[in-house]
Amino acid sequence: MKRSGLITTKIGMTRLYDDSGVAHPVTVLAVGDCTVIGNRTSEKNGYVANVLGIREAKAKHIAKPQAVAAEKAGVKPYRKVVEFRVTEDCIIPVGTELSASHFIAGQFVDVQATSKGKGYQGAMKRHNFGGKEASHGVLKAHRSIGGTGMREWPGRVLKGKKMAGQMGNETVTVQNLKVFGIDEVENLIFVEGAVPGSNGTFVLVTDAVKKEQKDLPVPTNTVKPAEPVEEAAAEQVTETETEAVAE
Question: Is residue 136 located within the same domain as residue 148?
Answer without folding.
Answer: yes
